[in-house]
Design brief:
The structure is a homotrimer. The first copy, chain A, is α/β, with parallel strands linked by helices. The first copy, chain A, folds into two domains: 186 residues, Rossmann fold; 195 residues, 3-Layer(aba) Sandwich (Rossmann fold). Chain A is 47% helix and 12% strand. Chain A is built from 16 helices and nine strands. Chain A has a five-stranded parallel β-sheet. The first copy, chain A, has a four-stranded parallel β-sheet with strand order 2-1-3-4, sandwiched between helices. In chain A, α2 crosses α6, α2 crosses α15 and α4 packs across α5. Chains in contact: A-B, A-C, B-C. At the A-C interface, α2, α3 and α14 of A face α4 and α16 of C.
Chain lengths: 394, 394, 394
């Protein structure tokens, strides 16, 4: 289908205008699909050398409270594509700031900013809370005419959700299987997997079960006992499944879960209760406590080294060839670590697929920005298509 | 008054073309007003979604020899608004470089640069000297055809002045009181205030007394004995006052000073003689000496904890409601520190006003750039208005 | 000659399209001249306020595995001139990554990137190898449709070559002597010089002898016994000289070499065998071994303090006034160090010339980008000239 037709068929109704993008489960299904379709259209425009540069100038602030390469590049690419310049806001990395500091800083960095992208995924109970504080500060700043415009907030990963990742993943599934309708009835397994590292955030598995449960799939969350996710998000996934005639199930055997799976997402994360303890210890700056916790957590992890996604487990999946997904970088046994989340041979089979999966993220972020800024995204896209500005070449 | 009329009424004579902006007292009163009016016009253009992008490309170099969030964002915003890209020049932060290194580096970073913004406020006797060295190196580079254009130098805070701050503050006063004429006869108190920190630069109080003394106000500088500013700048303020039929006074009681004040600016700074000792110790890399100096300075400071601007002191001001100003972040008692420059209730009353005050800085910097680059800024602004390029939207 | 004529006379045949720029000796002589002429044209356009902005958006990634100021600014300037935004890729500085990590990261940073500039000059046998790995990963990514375009790779200095430096130097010679034809028969001496520092890379002398041997010059490489360069590159220089009716010679007395030289390039570097040992020790993270090596290397260096280019040696050159070249910063005796590569009086004579020499680098990089992206660079330049977009001003 050509671009013009796709733009004409876009949902003309959007509730995304001037609304921060923090959690997928606070957005309607049609809005999520709108973002993904805009992303896909922007990707096609790029291929056709059409520039969607809707900003003549403007800043996109980034606040990374944790290291990041791919999300940083995705955000930079999205901003650049639309004509914005990224300005990093450097904070002492592990700082948990609240109150007046947040309120003031949010305004100080926003006078000429159109977006603020935040990554704050280290401390359970903190990341989303921080984003809400920033959001409120921006509301106040705009209402009281401190700010000439209300910058949009984009969650680049918090303790609860990782919407730019999960939506890139969902768009990958749509492209891979042909349509969202094709996903109906498919089985997707979000599985814990072994990793020799500690303290990996819960936001990816949480984001995946909360989003994939909206397409009528059979979603199975699988992990060793004790590696629970935030209960509230489990409820979100259950409700979503009910509302879309899908199913949601929690299980504790990787082998059993893999049976007949169409899609598998094996990835490590830290147990919920460990992350809770960790946040408390961090608040108290208890270094000894943190070191002890790390040791006991690694020892606990080591009991589950057999939670590796390998050729044997892959054979159990639908026709032995379920689509493997990962947010990258994966812990690949014998490559990036001795024993890890996935065997080298299985990863190599799907390596390029995971690269393609990652490639949707810049467009998802750009689409979020686009839908925030334009009340009628379809009209704005139509204008872009009409002008056909070259991205490269005069 | 609409934009067109404001542009037509701009002073057509400017001496700012191709002149660095280092110290407000080296500029004429009409040039300072021109910069502030251009800033105000650029701000209004932003509100009307008109892009003043006069550079198709070009770099704005930033050299921050001290940490900074708001000045960094202001500079980035100003550059971006006009079409320039910021390129940071990272130096070892505390390095005091002179001579060949400065001369060479100034040229190496300037081949395709339009501006260099420098913040170097840590060492008394150093910051301004460094900027003058850079300025001379740029002159030579341009004359000898090393550089295709002479990049403009903008002082983002030195040991003597902080012109982007003081001019944002002055523009805030103009907008708050209606006009520069309204400032005539008003009383402004630049007062020292207690802070539990050490070594705060003198450039803000110096910049404030040097600039505010140019509008016919009654300027009072108030501080405990020994917290002197650079004598040469006291003279500047005295002369300015004389020339504009205002007054300038130095006093040593916060309570007395606050009486009938229209505007108050309570802010901590380190005593002049301490800063001088500090520079000497830094040059010798005398760590023990510096640690000892810090202790004695903090002990000295602690004698003046009652220099807090609170509701009681505020009551003494004109009708009990003088405009409170601060360059932010303020040391707020019970919020950002135990005992500080201002009580929490008074700060909260003026919190949004201080945000608005800060919001002028990006436009002041952009106006400095604009006036440096265009011999006839009014004509250039007229062209921008004529073209009415959208900042957002195609 | 005016711009239009120069563009018309450009070689219409280019083999640079979609080809990484890693080593000058893998490029044809006519392609090298094409890059330099494009650089010179872009420089003239800048002087005439014509913007060659051929990208409406796009990223230019930079990976600096070693500190850099001038190359960083040159790359940023080149990208900016053409409309691209630099995005830094921060790695732990001394990390030698290979394999899966390189392959994956190369793709992750390239989804919307047009160029990747890499500086990796610290370890003999590593830098170029790393760039080739990145290059292959980009090839795969593009072929397998992970990447919508194949980003071009630009060598910003590796262990073997420093093409953006050597080509800026060659362009400087062309402009200084009038034409490449004028270089024929001239004597250029690439000489080792004393420096109190250790571990300086070999890529500049290697790049210089490999490139300058292509213009029919008499190239003499001069250094104390043991300060050899990579043998393979010596062969390159020998072959080049043979093919262009020039000569190539290695000698070991600075005084003798300087006799009748037209151009001299006195610069320090570490001996080849030391750099090899260093790489081995670094791979083993042998800190004590590295410290010992540094000591013995500095002691070895100290034997050759008389290898300083001074007025006496300058007198030996053709008419006592050979053109002095340096990639900067130079170790200037009595200025940047006690005893160094060049005496203060001689350096001062040529100081501005070395600045001018450095000023070609941004244009060389931009020309490399230009020739990578446009199959017919002459046509693209013609279009730019036709449009005459102002760089500054509406």
């Amino acid at each position: 289908m050509n671009l013009q037709k796709r733009i004409e068929e876009l949902n003309p109704i959007s509730s995304l205008y001037n609304q921060d993008f923090l959690l997928t489960w606070k957005k309607s299904g049609s809005d999520l699909r709108l973002v993904m379709e805009i992303a896909s259209i922007l990707k096609e425009m790029r291929h056709q050398n059409i520039s969607p540069r809707v900003f003549d100038s403007g800043l996109a602030v980034s606040i990374f409270r944790d290291n990041s390469t791919r999300t940083r590049f995705s955000y930079a690419s999205a901003a650049n594509m639309l004509g914005l310049t990224v300005q990093d806001m450097d904070e002492t990395k592990s700082q948990i700031a609240h109150g007046e500091t947040v309120r003031e800083t949010a305004n100080m960095i926003s006078f000429l900013s159109d977006f603020i992208g935040i990554r704050d995924d280290m401390y359970l109970g903190e990341g989303h809370k921080y984003m809400e504080e920033v959001s409120k500060a921006l509301d106040e700043g705009f209402e009281k005419e401190v700010l000439p415009q209300r910058p949009g907030l984009i969650n680049l990963q918090c303790d609860m959700d990782h919407p730019t990742q999960s939506m890139a993943d969902a768009l990958h599934l749509r492209e891979h299987f042909g349509s969202f309708e094709e996903l109906r009835g498919k089985k997707i397994v979000m599985s814990w997997a072994y990793s020799p590292s500690y303290g990996k955030p819960l936001s990816v598995p949480q984001g995946i079960i909360a989003l994939m449960s909206r397409f009528g799939m059979h979603v199975e969350l699988c992990h060793p006992e004790g590696y629970n996710l935030i209960p509230e998000i489990i409820d979100v996934a259950k409700n979503n499944s009910r509302n879309t005639d899908g199913t949601f199930k929690i299980s504790h055997s990787m082998e059993d879960a893999m049976k007949d799976a169409d899609i598998v997402y094996p990835k490590s994360w830290a147990p919920f209760h460990i992350m809770e303890q960790r946040t408390e210890l961090l608040k108290k700056s208890d270094k000894q406590g943190l070191a002890d916790l790390e040791q006991s957590c690694l020892a606990e992890n080591a009991k589950f080294k057999n939670w590796e996604y390998d050729a044997k487990k892959m054979k159990l999946t639908k026709n032995g060839k379920a689509l493997y997904m990962h947010c990258l970088p994966a812990d690949i046994s014998g490559v990036s670590c001795k024993e890890g989340e996935v065997s080298a041979d299985v990863f190599e089979k799907f390596r390029l697929q995971t690269y393609i999966e990652a490639g949707y993220k810049p467009y998802i972020i750009a689409a979020m920005m686009f839908a925030y800024k334009f009340e009628h995204p379809a009209l704005a896209l139509k204008e872009i298509l009409g002008l056909k500005m070259n991205r490269v070449g005069m």
